[in-house]
Amino acid sequence: MSRLRQRLLPLTVLLASVAALIASLVWVAGNGSPSWGPRTGMTTGGVASRQGPIRNLADADRAAGRFADRWGLRVGEVMQFSNGYYAQLLDSSGKGATEALIDPRSGAVQLEFGPAMMWNTAYGMMPTGTQPGPTKIGPGQAVRIADRWLHDHHKDLHAAKPDWFPGYFTLHTLRDDHIVGMLSVNATTGDVWYHTWHGRFVREEEPSPSRNSTSG
Asked: Which of 23, 135, 163, 187 has the fewest CB atoms below 10 angstroms from its CB?
């Protein structure tokens, strides 16, 4: 690691943590948070809808679908956790675009905080303005990085296959091949961001067979 990166890394982590904290506080308040247009960094009107309580995965899928329609995307995997619902958003070819959270109380949909906001090079808060190029870290290396991190922090967990998004991978964490949670690996730096906000895993809706989870 270069001396410049050593000096900048603590600041980068601090800024990312503050952004995630602010987003999580807004989410807990039930007010939603700004959504961000692809490669613009500009708000697109906040949450997609407040349709009322989300009672099941089908409701969450519909709410995420209205949010995805704004950007010409579609919904992939949908998951329920004790703290709310999660959805992957895919582009027209089935590649990962970004990730979203659905508030079960209000039906409000927003970009997931953490990697989707801070690392996504196309749909995040700080897009690069260019199409994602080759990454330094591939899917297999992302799994190895995730497993090493889990060995150091959650010894009873291991990583599943990665889902690629512009700039990073997201992987399910497993215990005895059962989903526990998620983490993300930055495709350039190899940094790991564990998703602490989901709570306990409840159930999932299987994605379409056309979903491409490791394309980059």
From this structure: 135
